[in-house]
Amino acid sequence: MLSILPRRGANVSDNLANHFLLGDDVVFLNHGSFGACPRPVFKAYQDFQLELERQPVAFLARELTERMRMPRVALAAEVGTSPDNVVGVTNATFGLNIVAQSLDLKEGDEILTTDHEYASLEKTWAYVARRTGAKIVVVDIPIPLLEESQFTDTIIGAMTDRTKVLFLSHITSPTALYFPIERAVAEARKRGIYSVIDGAHTLGHVPLDMEALGADFYASNCHKWLMAPKGSAFLYARPELQHLLNPLVIGHGWTAESKQPGAKGTFGNSPFIDENEVMGTRDPAPMLAVADAIAFRREHDWDSVARQCQQLAHETAARVQKLTGLTPLSAPQFSAPQMVAMPVPHIAEPPKFQQELMDRYRIEIPVLNWKSHSIVRVSAQGYNSKPQMDLLVEALKEMLDL
């Protein structure tokens, strides 16, 4: 067993690794769970907090509405839509709850989804189904996923005249698959089915264009692959459907006239923005720092960094696959670029195995059982290096007796 931790960033750029606050005592291969915020972005976040504390009334009562426009404008440019169609929320789960708890569902309506969804959103829809009497229909996506038609035909084939909602992950959490959702979303629109997309892992990870995609509602985190501070995410809603949404918290942004055509919110934006942005005292600094995260990525040519990380992640998965002999969950084009779910021989207790990887090798990485598969999910970000991946491969070889 190696006793000296590999240096971070050795094969991408030591300089990039030095931009992050991650401790040198951990090999962090789990960017996909919560991300990691670069030092300059974290400083911008703290500067906003300090400014708030120096004059909280001016910051929150007089200036915040205009300040919050800056991250909306920056985000809208990143995701191909108007700033009026996105609103800042604390995380993707919160944004998707706004949608799920707003749609007018009733007994007999169907919510169509897959067997790859994130657990907290499965619970969200279970709650909605219990409250409304709607039925959740879960389809199994064929594994390994080798062709777009396997996914799309499965989804469209399960649509019925009772289907009211299509809920899909764009990049899945447990299996790290990059679903080709475009044709399914288009078919849902054609049939009058609301398309609700969990894009928690997409922003900063894969190209996004809301207008081209055509989804009705879409939420993504800024704190993961965009590398903004924790507590930053966005919810997108098509303009003609924004009136359907109700805020989870009724606060100063709510107005009784919000459902009328052309209504304005309390603070001059649309009700969609004002009702969901103004909900009582909270720390707006994570959202305000989103523009700094976008600027950091541009300054460091993060598209080029991401290509190197994609190569590193997929090369590592290929090495593990060669050791295990197990079939990958998908063809490469249907795996997330910088995050790969690697099948390994059966692990009886994933939490114990995950902790042992930390205790013995100082490797932080998710380990889980999904259906009949045991999975180790590796992420590669600009601070990671090939020596770190070498350590992971050797650790799995030892612990799984490969």
TrEMBL record:
Domain Aminotransferase class V: start-end pairs: 38-365
Key word Glycoprotein present: no
Keywords: Pyridoxal phosphate
Ribonucleoprotein is among the record's keywords: no
SUPFAM superfamilies (UniProt xref): PLP-dependent transferases
Stored Pfam families: Aminotran_5
InterPro entries according to UniProt: Aminotrans_V_dom, PyrdxlP-dep_Trfase, PyrdxlP-dep_Trfase_major, PyrdxlP-dep_Trfase_small
Protein's name in the database: Aminotransferase class V domain-containing protein
Biological classification of the source: Bacteria, Pseudomonadati, Pseudomonadota, Alphaproteobacteria, Hyphomicrobiales
